[in-house]
Amino acid sequence: MSATDERPPIAELRDVHVVHRARAGGLFSRERVYALTGADLTVRAGETIGVVGESGCGKSTLAKVLVGLQRPTSGSVTVGGEDVWTMPMAQRRRRIGAGIGMIFQDPATSLNRRMPVRDILRDPLDVHRRGTREQREERVTELMSLVGLPASVADVLPSQLSGGQRQRVSIARALALEPGLVIADEPTSALDVSVRAQILNLLLDLKDRLGLAMVFVSHDIQTVKRISDRVVTMYLGRIVEQTPAAALPEGGRHPYTRALFSATPGLLSPIDPIPLVGPVPSATRPPSGCPFRTRCWNATDVCAADLPPTEPGGLGGGHEFRCHHPVPAGVGSAQLVELAKAATGRTTPLHVEETA
Ligand SMILES: Nc1ncnc2c1ncn2[C@@H]1O[C@H](COP(=O)(O)OP(=O)(O)OP(=O)(O)O)[C@@H](O)[C@H]1O
Ligand code: SF4
Ligand SMILES: [Mg+2]
Q: Which domains does the chain have, with CATH numbers?
């Protein structure tokens, strides 16, 4: 058991499914969208979990479930050991509001445009009745200094701030109630390239100083590897691997984890990316068996027939994956690219069956 495994869990998802009903072709017909399927995840005190996967794979849905903004269709979400969807609404709001902070992608839309910075930051303190009025004012000043905002912006509206300053306000708001866990869903991707590094460094600094756990969703795979303890790979609504970040890319056993990491080689050792054939299937009709089988170079009939069980990955630190034919441990990226290229020249067509 690694040190990470011994920290107390802050939030846990068990077999969580989120199915949306989306309007299909006709006015009254509705299709099921499988946004999150059978998700199991434990977030422990002080750890950073990075979440990666292509657009639409369910990263934001996972984030929203963790912070109570999305009720699961089935499965359980526990915060501090208690199932938050079986408790009364007021208790759930208190529990999640005080325990988990959320930073969204775009501060221009996630902050109330009519409120000055001071009120935005005092709002969670008022709602949760923290301290006296004076103590709340003091906390607002403290929060602004914590995220590097000058006192002079306390009375201005978000629209009068730069993008980077607005995201600092979002971060301060997320930290107002001293949560143990912060969820950041692409917190820098809506910002100018020039301020992204500053905001990322601020988040990392605060995480260390305050001992926060963090779930960090991003398309920037190399940043995720650099800042995370554990990387969660998602594909078509499913968590397909959880890997200790330091062991990536070679430690990844799931073909999709390896393909994702091969697509962003380091500048010093450029390699060809692993070729993936075909588009990501629709979230309304995920394939039977393994969701990745329509694009995987290793797929066989068993991949179409059965969903692979979750297996321990052998590296500790929560390493686990779902794959019938995992990449052998320690195979290097260049060697894997050759194996995948050779395999995609196969002549046996994949047997594609869609679930209802
Ligand atoms: N309210 C909704 N109604 C219907 N479908 C939805 C809804 N919200 C999300 N989805 C669908 O659920 C799936 C997962 O969406 P999600 O936003 O979690 O993906 P994502 O990984 O965050 O994508 P991106 O990288 O583009 O942000 C997608 O197919 C999306 O279209
Ligand atoms: S289970 Fe089969 S299709 Fe899925 S990732 Fe593993 S080898 Fe590929
Ligand atoms: Mg998203």
A: 9-228 (3.40.50.300), 247-343 (no CATH)
Å from CA of 279 to ligand 3 middle: 18
Q: CB under 6 Å to ligand 2: residues?
A: 254-255, 290, 292-293, 296, 298-299, 303, 308, 323-325
pLDDT in tens, 113-152: 999 999 999 999 999 999 999 999 999 999 999 999 999 9
Please name which ligand lies nearest the alpha carbon of 340.
2
In this prediction, residue 315 carries a pLDDT of: 87
Q: Using an 8 Å Cβ cutoff, are 60 and 217 in contact? A: yes
Q: CB pairs under 8 A, 24+ apart, for 203-210?
A: 203/103, 203/171, 206/146, 206/147, 206/171, 206/175, 207/48, 207/182, 210/175, 210/178
Q: Ligand 1 pocket test: which of 36, 52, 61 has the largest number of ligand atoms within 8 Å of its C-beta?
A: 61
Measure the CA–CA gap between 254 and 274, rounded to whole angstroms: 13
Kindly report the protein residue whose alpha carbon is nearest to atom 28 of ligand 1: 56
pTM over 0.85: yes
Taking the centre of ligand 2 as the mean of its atom positions, its distance from the CA of residue 325, in whole angstroms, is: 6
Distance CA 88, CA 288 (A): 37
Q: Residue 55: its pLDDT value, please?
A: 93
Nearest ligand 2 atom to alpha carbon 324: 1
Task: Round the CA-based radius of gyration of the chain to a whole number and report it.
Answer: 22
Strand partners, 213: 181
pLDDT at 261 > cutoff 50: yes
